[in-house]
Design goal:
mainly alpha
Length: 112
């Protein structure tokens, strides 16, 4: 017989829904596996979040403005749009937008 995991539905609701912890983080805290916590969430009637980013189209003009005009990194664009960095980079390539060159650091003494 398995070990009893002492975590209540109330605690799960607080950790997962109110505090936004992941299933894996709650499992580490409770000393059990993530599938055990996922199962307990279902038994408690707590809806689980999808671990995937929502499929979302990125308009070319939006991507160009964020990447070239605002000079945001791919990670910053991904966070702003709620998608993965891979999605942003895949859209950049699909639109044929060249990657920005990395700026060379300017020497602190002013010499080139």
């Amino acid at each position: 017989m398995g070990r009893i995991i002492a975590i209540t539905c109330h605690e799960l609701r607080q950790f997962y829904l109110e505090e936004g912890h992941s299933i894996a983080a709650i499992a580490r805290r409770a000393g059990c596996s993530a599938p055990t916590i996922a199962s307990r969430l279902r038994r408690c009637g707590i809806p689980t979040r999808s671990g995937r980013f929502q499929a979302r189209e990125i308009a070319r003009d939006t991507l160009e403005a964020l990447y070239y005009d605002e000079r945001l990194t791919l990670a910053e664009i991904a966070r702003r749009l709620g998608v993965s960095v891979g999605t942003v980079n895949n859209r950049r390539r699909a639109y044929g937008l060249p990657a920005r060159r990395r700026a060379r650091p300017v020497p602190s003494d002013g010499w080139q």
